[in-house]
Amino acid sequence: MNTLTDHLNALVTPTPYAAAVAHPFLTSAASLSLPTNRLALYLFQDRIYAAQAYPRFIAQLITKIPLDDTTHAPFATRTLTILVGCLTNIVREVTFFDTTARTYNLPLDHGYWRERKATRDYTAEMARIGALASLEDGLVFLWAMEKIYLDAWSTVYAALPEASSSQVLEAQSQVDLTAKAITDLSYNWSSSNPDFAQFVKELGDLVDDYFTPVMAGHSLAGRSAREALAHAEAIWARVVELEAEFWPDEGEEDTLHYA
């Protein structure tokens, strides 16, 4: 019997998976040719996601955990532990954004960049799922976000020039500083970082355990197996679409900053 995550990973989505994990932004990052301001624009958008939308989304999922259900208490406690860990992780991530920006001279000031429409679309969908979806669907959304992010940056880190990926590049100019920033960022969010890789695996395992009945043809949370699976597939496809749109395109760094 396939797991849900295996099923979703094999799914052909309207927005191809490659659009989310091999966008030109990422290929430019992997070749260390990404302009400094395009990287800064991206980090500004990602900081909005991390500092504002993500904590609210996790908090909404926590409120959906049936902690008073003594029959499934260990499962509920496991879910709560993982989601609380998400909040701890995101505090560390926001600090990492700010430290990286200072270290590598990347402008992240709110008075410098405008928010992209793709950022608003992403955070709006997180708010909708957090408010209206079931806990199970919310966990699929959460895993999908983290899984695609892991795959995208793992591809970047694996493709970096050897001198950069071994982190021996000497910074002598802003170009070098940007290259070092890309190296640090891509390592942090790649499968080479065991902490992040393990975190994504734990999320995937949790989702698979919730959906074990569905993959065996049984109902889940009042929905038939077919309906529950269709919901999960739609969520996965939507996150692929949102992730593909989240990467800035060439030239946006020139049109999305305040004069």
TrEMBL record:
User: What is the name listed in the Swiss-Prot or TrEMBL entry for this protein?
Assistant: Heme oxygenase-like protein
Superkingdom assignment = Eukaryota
Instruction: Tell me the CDD domains matching this sequence.
Output: TenA_E_At3g16990-like (cd19357)
Checking InterPro entries in the record gives: Haem_Oase-like_multi-hlx, Polyketide-peptide_reg
* SUPFAM superfamilies reported for this sequence: Heme oxygenase-like
